[in-house]
Each structure stands twice: as C-alpha cells, then as structure tokens.
C-alpha cells in the first residue's frame, strides 16, 4: 500500500496571502492580533482579533475568497494545473445554507454553496475546531482504500458576529491578545483565513515528479463522551498515542499544539503531552502553537497548524509561540518563546480539538 504524502499547501492568514508569508512571520515570532478594524465586534477593551489584510485577498463573501485563494496556492505548489477528474474534495466547516434573522453577516458564517473545484466527488466534514485534522484523516483513508490518488482538503472562515457572540457566551474570549501556554493566559482571540492541502498516494506523486518528503504517517480522529466545551487530558493523551501507534512509531520530535490560550484547555493539553512524553522517555519535547500569532480560526485552525508542522520538519526549526512570555512550568516539554532547533528530527504531531469532544491528531514525518 502506497503512503499518503502532502504535495501541496495553501494558506490565507491574518499575516496575508501565502504559506511563505505565514511561515516567515510565525518563525519571527510576530503577532497579527490587533483591535478589530473591518470586523466591528462589540467593544470590549483589550480584545484582539486576527483579520486578513484587505489587500491580501479580494472578493466576497470573504470566507469563499479565502478558501479559493488557498486552493489556488495548494494546487500550484503541488504542480497541478487542476484536479484530476477522479480526485476527491473534502470541505471542512459548517454546512452551506441560509437563515433569516442573522442579517448580511450570515453569509460570512456559512458561506455560499462551495464550488467543488472541478472535482465530481465532494464530501463535507464538520467536527468543530478539529475539522481540518479530521479531513486529513479522511483523505488518508480514501487514498489507503484506493478510492482516489489525489484528495484536496480545504476550508475557510471569516470573522462574523454569530461565532464571536457564541465564544463570548461561553466566556472563551480573552481580554488581551491570546497567550497560549502562558501562566497569564485568559482565553482565545479569534482569527480568520483559509487553508488547503493536496494529498496524494506516494507512487502517484512520484510518477509525476512531485515532492514526496512529507508523509501523513498516522492519524487518530475520535469523538469522545467528555464535556461539550472542556478538554479531557486522558482523551487527548489517548488520541496522540493512538496516532503514533497508527504510524508505527515510538518517537516524537515536535508537537504543534492546539493550545488556544484558554486556562482549562491549555492545562489539559499540557497534562496529556507530559504523559505522552513520559511514555516515550522524552525530557525536552518542543511544543509550539500558532494561535498567539494569528488567533483561533475555529474549524479552519488545523490548516495553519499542519502547515507549520510541515515547515518545521522541512526547515529544521520549530516556530516560537507568539505571546508566550511566562511559560507554564513543565518537566518534559519545552515551551520556548523563541524558535527551537529541530535539525535531524523527523516526526511531528499536530493536535486539534473541538467542542463536542472532537479529538484529532495527525503524525507527519519527513523522509529525506
């Protein structure tokens, strides 16, 4: 059975358009979080959001424009002029639709009926903030089953009042820019953007001369029975360990963590990762998060996480966690505010969790 490899990546983030723009800013420890400009959130002093620059992507609804721009970049980086007719498209997020009473902002919540990007086989997955990693796992299953040689996973999100009010209702919004893993953290900052990933069967990619160094070696996607809005350390630990087992690996060199900046969620994830590190005999496991840099993109948040882990493997450097100045004390994890060299390391895990006890982990490896 051929391995599943990542051949194309595309991103739109609050730093602007493109994977390179995102990675350069993330690696430098920059933050795009700022008081709302275009998005007129209810005024609460100190709250910050991650807005995509208006000159980065044109078009409305913005959610569709972000998704489309990410797809164009992903296909280009994969060396594909268009998707093969046999390709499968996996869209992540809310089901398209319309609802009276929400005003013009409703289109930015659900978006219009999404175009399938020239492919005849399209699936919609919605697993809250773990949707992108669930999409990655679904794509790998499709390729492993021989149902397609190429799968595109894509999603987009735009800041809107419905989701912002929902996060405020559960007291998740921070009164300062998000600070993942910081002892002074107080919640999340919301962001917007789009992401796309082209996955292929390794032999198919090799035949057409595409890069095959990034392998989706293992995944675990589970819906637990825990509290709807609280993370469970045992479920997180089980999910990470199951993904490593699926990959057939007993090593881990870097984690790009879900880490949104909430007190409970970050603590649960640290407890779980400490246990994973202990089980592997690790004492200095590098852990990063991008959410202090661009905010939490909700159901789209897994795309920058996967991209960051992929770039860390290729560059040999785990990015810093923006906003982290006073790290939580840990025994086996390295939560450095600065970049962490990872030269020679080739296994990264991406953790992604969502409301409703959605738990996802993807294990990426780089084959030299």
From TrEMBL:
InterPro entries: Beta-ketoacyl_synthase, Ketoacyl_synth_AS, Ketoacyl_synth_C, Ketoacyl_synth_N, PKS_Beta-ketoAc_synthase_dom, Thiolase-like. GO terms for molecular function: 3-oxoacyl-[acyl-carrier-protein] synthase activity. SMART domains: PKS_KS. Belongs to the thiolase-like superfamily. Beta-ketoacyl-ACP synthases family. It comes from Saccharothrix coeruleofusca. Gene3D superfamilies: 3.40.47.10. Keywords: Transferase. This is 3-oxoacyl-ACP synthase. It holds the Pfam family ketoacyl-synt. Residues 1-366 form the Ketosynthase family 3 (KS3) domain. One of its GO terms (biological process) is fatty acid biosynthetic process.
């Amino acid at each position: 059975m051929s391995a599943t490899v990542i051949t194309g990546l595309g991103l739109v983030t609050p730093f602007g358009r493109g994977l390179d723009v995102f990675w350069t800013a993330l690696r430098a420890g920059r933050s795009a979080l700022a008081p709302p400009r275009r998005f007129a959130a209810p005024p609460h002093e100190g709250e910050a959001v991650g807005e995509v620059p208006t000159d980065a992507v044109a078009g409305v609804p913005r959610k569709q424009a972000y998704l489309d721009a990410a797809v164009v970049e992903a296909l280009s980086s994969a060396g594909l002029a268009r998707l093969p007719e046999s390709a499968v498209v996996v869209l992540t997020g809310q089901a398209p639709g319309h609802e009276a009473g929400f005003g013009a902002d409703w289109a930015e919540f659900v978006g219009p009926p999404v175009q399938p990007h020239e492919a005849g086989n399209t699936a919609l997955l919605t697993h809250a903030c773990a949707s992108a990693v669930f999409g990655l796992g679904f794509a790998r299953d499709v390729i492993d089953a021989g149902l397609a040689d190429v799968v595109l996973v894509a999603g987009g999100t735009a800041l809107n009042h419905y989701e912002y009010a929902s996060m405020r209702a559960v007291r998740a919004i921070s009164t300062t820019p998000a600070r993942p893993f910081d002892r002074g953290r107080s919640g999340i900052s919301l962001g917007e953007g789009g992401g796309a990933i082209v996955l292929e069967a390794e032999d198919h990619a090799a035949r057409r001369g595409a890069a095959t160094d990034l392998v989706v070696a293992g995944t675990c996607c589970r819906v637990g029975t825990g509290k709807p809005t609280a993370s469970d350390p045992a479920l997180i630990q089980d999910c990470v360990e199951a993904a490593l087992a699926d990959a057939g690996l007993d090593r881990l060199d870097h984690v790009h963590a879900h880490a949104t900046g909430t007190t409970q969620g970050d603590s649960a994830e640290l407890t779980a990762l400490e246990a994973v590190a202990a089980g592997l005999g690790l004492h200095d496991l590098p852990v990063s998060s991008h959410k202090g840099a661009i905010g939490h993109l909700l159901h789209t948040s897994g795309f920058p996480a996967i991209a960051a882990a992929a770039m860390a493997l290729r560059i040999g450097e785990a990015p810093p966690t923006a906003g982290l100045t006073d790290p939580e004390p840990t025994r086996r994890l390295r939560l450095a505010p600065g970049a962490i060299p990872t030269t020679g390391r080739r296994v990264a895990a991406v953790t992604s969790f969502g409301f409703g006890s959605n738990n996802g982990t993807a294990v990426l490896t780089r084959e030299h």
